[in-house]
Specification:
The chain is mostly helical and 151 residues long. A two-stranded antiparallel ribbon has the order 1-2. The protein is built from five helices and two strands. It has a single domain, classed as dinb family like domain (Four Helix Bundle (Hemerythrin (Met), subunit A), Up-down Bundle), CATH 1.20.120. The protein is globular and about 45 Å long. A hairpin with a 2-residue loop joins strand 1 and strand 2. Helix 2 runs parallel beside helix 3. Keywords: Metal-binding. This is DinB family protein. Belongs to the DinB family.
Amino acid sequence: MTNINAFIKDWQSHRKVLQAMLDVVTTEQLSYRPWEKGMSVSELALHIAGAMNMFVSTVKNGAYTPGQKATPPSTIEELKAKIAADTEQSEAILTSITPEQLEQSIDFFGHPITGAVLLQNAKDHEIHHKGQMFVYLRMAGIENLPFFVSR
């Protein structure tokens, strides 16, 4: 990857869908979890957004940069606001990443990986969990969901 703007555009095509999915979730559905030890709808959304912030901060800083633990929201409005804020933060960091930072090698849990590859892994991670969210919401009884990608 040499064009961070192309990456951002592609990532946003997935993040917009996560945000659209949350538009059909009620506050009562935030605590839904498909199995006892699984993440709730709210926890999964926070994980998706928080992980992206961790990945982009790691690329920007050239070293693993852990994210902050998010406080679970009480309402869907609070969750949507948190995801929107995290999205803005990720985008701001992404737009500041240089070509040199994309090519730098980063030790990511004992694996040397370039910033570009780490960002691709971040997007893949988000897509994976967004797929889980589709299943969660179907199981919670939501029938009308957005298309899996937004262009």
